[in-house]
Amino acid sequence: MMTGTVRAPSPCEHGRYADRMRPPASVLLIVPVAVLVGCSTPDPEASAPTPTQTITASPQSSPTLSPTSDPVVAPTCEELADPELVTSLAESGYVPTASPFEIGDVTLDPGVQCTWVIPDSGTDAHVLQAWGVITDAQAQVAIDALVGEGWVTEPGEEGTYVTFPGGGVQSDAEGYYTTYLFGDGWVTLSDVKAGLAEIVRPVS
To answer: For 9-38, what is the mean pLDDT?
Structure first.
């Protein structure tokens, strides 16, 4: 009979001796979980810390608003007239007076009417210029009213001329008296038709 110490398999060797020395099922159930964990080989990939991915949100560009144009305002009498005309009138002693630009019952806004006169001259000599913003509907009403009073329409490259047929204080070289020019969204007025070319319209 052989004597000696029988070494019990270590928990880590349990798998190698399972076929020869399979313990009863009740024994297997009481094996400490900590021991089994100690026998397992750590997975290097599982134990390695998972790199954290940092996602940087790209800034969204704000919508660019198109610059809005400044609202059109009525010019001064000096701005409305051609610079050479302003110089000539000033040298001759003419002084401008600004007033609202009205056609019938309609006051144009923005709009201005300028009357240049020589103060205390005792004469009716004057230079009349006017400009204003007008809608198509207002223009048609104004033209119809003027025609009803005897004014005459005449087509032009920039719009429709409406001319007083005669009887004014002064006329231009072609015999035209006070004349309106109705354009696209605007209207001008001068004491003579040729004077319309000396009006500097604001840029709209």
So the answer is: 39
